[in-house]
Design a protein that fits this description.
This protein has one helix and four strands, in the order ββββα. It has 71 residues and is α+β, with helices and mostly antiparallel strands. It is elongated.
C-alpha cells in the first residue's frame, strides 16, 4: 500500500535479508503492519494475522524436520 502522494511518508523496515530473499514491514495509514516477502521474482504481501500463521507453519516444518518426521 504505497502512498499516492510523494509527500506522504511511507514507513518501511527491513527485518531480514539474504542474497536472494528480503522480508520487510510497512505500516499503513491505519497503523497496521503489512509484511512483504520478496522471493526472487515473487512478492508476497501479508497482513499481521497472515504473517503470524506463516511463521507458525514454518515453525511446524522446522520441528518436523528436526525430529526426523519427514522420510
Amino acid at each position: 500500500m504505497f502512498p499516492n502522494d510523494p509527500e506522504d511518508e511511507f514507513e518501511m523496515e527491513t527485518l531480514a535479508e539474504t542474497e536472494h530473499f528480503t522480508l520487510w514491514r510497512s505500516t499503513g495509514d491505519d497503523g497496521h503492519s503489512l509484511f512483504h516477502l520478496e522471493l526472487g521474482n515473487v512478492s508476497i504481501h501479508l497482513t499481521e494475522e497472515e504473517w503470524e500463521e506463516l511463521v507458525e507453519l514454518v515453525d511446524q516444518a522446522v520441528e518436523t524436520l528436526e525430529s526426523g518426521g519427514v522420510g
